[in-house]
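Entry: 2-oxoglutarate dehydrogenase
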Amino acid sequence: MNTIEFGKCVVPVIGSYDTVIVGGGTAGASAGISAAREGNKTIIVEKSLSLGGAAVGALVNPMMESFVIHEQNFYEIENRLKEKGASTRDGIMNYVYSTPENKASVLEEMFLEHNGTILYDAMLSGCTKENDKIQAIVVATSDGLKAVCGKQFVDASGDALLSRMAGVPVSIGDDEGFNQMTSYRFEMGGIDVDKYRKYCLELEDEFSPLKKGYFWESAMVKNKRFKLEPLFREGIEKGLLTEDDLVYYQCFSIPDAPGCMTFNCPHISNMKRNMDAMARSEAVTQGRKMIQRLVRFLQQCMPGFEHAFLIREAAALGVRESCRIEGKYILKEEDYLNRARFDDAVAKGDWYIDVHSSTKGLVHMDKYEKGEYYEIPYRCLINNHVKNMLTIGRCISTTFLVQASIRIQPTVIDMGDTAGKACARALKEKIELADFSGKGLMER
């Protein structure tokens, strides 16, 4: 097939594949690696210029702690990051931690080693569907509209964009339709991290009581009695900050980057609907002004930042949550509380319910002990409307609160790993993804 009809356009086809993955974030890249490793002709279509999604473009580092036994891709990613100099799970802290560039490099290397194809700089614009199966996706490229045909499709877009285009119903936000808060992260260099750490410890700041090693984490949440809040209040009095700047502040040291820290802030607290295109654009301009204020405040007021400077702002917003598909099973709070097990499990989750609410502030609920976990069933990845598609990542079928647990990188890497295996095995058995049992995908 050389062309397809898309509306009133005739669109050139640039390739046909067994598995077409929309979105090369940690979930999509992991799915691509597994599908290609098991023999599927696989392409990842990515709107940016790197794999890694939010972990790379939005500077979402480090991966949060997870104590479950993971799948193959997770450990291979970690081992390759170590080969590039990353310090992960070193006995002092339990994060898997690297620079964004190293993570992007590792994911790309792993996928290409299995003969995968990547189409960078391509934005999903639509799809063609016949009955209950997607036939092709249409993407906007530097060479105009192009089509990619496939036998199977994986929506790893982060916003369930392909799922929605194909007619899959979604749920948005909490009971009021409001999403979790979005961040706009940045990095700074020239920091005397030891001086900053000493200052926090002298305040008896117990948020991150680490007195040794390169790693340092610091935070302040408005009106939560953090020891750094009085200094931030002084910043308001001096006209350096506004009340919105105090909603959430957090930073981490960066491995292999002495004197540098990455900031999990500012929070864009007034953006309550994260899929609104204009709201996202306005969040960028608002977040940039907030970053400028935070940098100026840190330089003038925070010990250790006297000679610090802004390295870069993120190339993408840090969107925690936007929408969730209505799948064949909805993972609920009861499943989380009961440490649910499923015979079609695709991943284990052990992160707590971690809600950055746009209306209620930071909400942490029902933390697990080490060794405890729940499972995510394959049925959360499939739906009743499209036979040949999986949805993976933060947009799977869950409630609003449970989504706040499943969204971390270790969990979605495992989910992508098993999703890729499902694609390969369903194709070999000549079964549509929606009819595949999902049993036996988790191998560890």
